């Protein structure tokens, strides 16, 4: 029998047992030739100790999409179907100058007044909650719970306001702060929704045929130091 010397190290005990382990040839494939501790997981799970009919399933399942995620998925598919294209900020500036594209800034009025591309038209896609019905008070309270004291709602007059300023045949580049994206990534297979993409969806849904989206948003426009004006 091979001796098993023990080292009284303070960190661990070292067992010199490797020379005493049995060796197995490819022919020895039956369970009775292999100690239980060396059998594969599948072999051990298939033993008679498990109740008959028990099915082992992978616990790693995909989390269910939220209603907001499902809603964005539908909107994104519609934008792709209608061939709404994203343009970067420099291309947007060129299209505005050379091809009479209209930049539609859908940020809140206060942000628009601080800075915006020259010639841009502002129609906010969301507005501050205006009414004081029981429902609106509850919504304000919900926003306040998260420290947001300027709760917003979708602007019900958005399309009407756009139609009063921009012709249906106009070529429109819709812009917001962040921009969002329709491009899928590993972490965001449906892209990332934004105010400008929601606005683009509403425009296409209401008959605007030449709608584009500003990739990177106005944050990137200002970062690239492209022309801007303010109304303060």
Q: Quick gist of this model?
A:
By secondary structure, this protein is of the alpha/beta class.
Describe the protein's architecture and organization.
The chain is α/β, with parallel strands linked by helices and 232 residues long. 31% of the residues lie in helices and 10% in strands. The protein has 8 helices and 7 strands, in the order H-H-E-H-E-H-E-E-H-E-H-E-H-E-H. It has helices at residues 41-45, 67-81, 89-99, 109-114, 134-145, 158-163, 195-205, 217-223, and strands at 85-87, 102-105, 121-122, 126-128, 152-154, 172-175, 211-214. The strands form 2 sheets. Strands 1-7-6-2-3 form a 5-stranded parallel sheet. Helix 2 crosses helix 7 (195-205). The longest helix has 15 residues, at 67-81. The protein is globular and about 45 Å long.
Give the helix tally.
Answer: 8
Q: Which class of secondary structure composition applies to the elements?
A: alpha/beta
End-to-end separation in angstroms reads 92 Å
The percentage of residues in β strands lies in 5-15%
The biggest beta sheet, please?
Answer: 5 strands, parallel
Number of strands: 7
Q: How helix-rich are the residues, as a percent range?
A: 25-40%
Shape: globular
Contiguous runs where pLDDT drops below 50 for at least 5 residues: 1-48, 143-149
Main sheet: strand order:
1-7-6-2-3
- Taking all residues together, what is the mean pLDDT? 75
Output the helix-strand order: HHEHEHEEHEHEHEH
What radius of gyration results from the CA coordinates? 31 Å
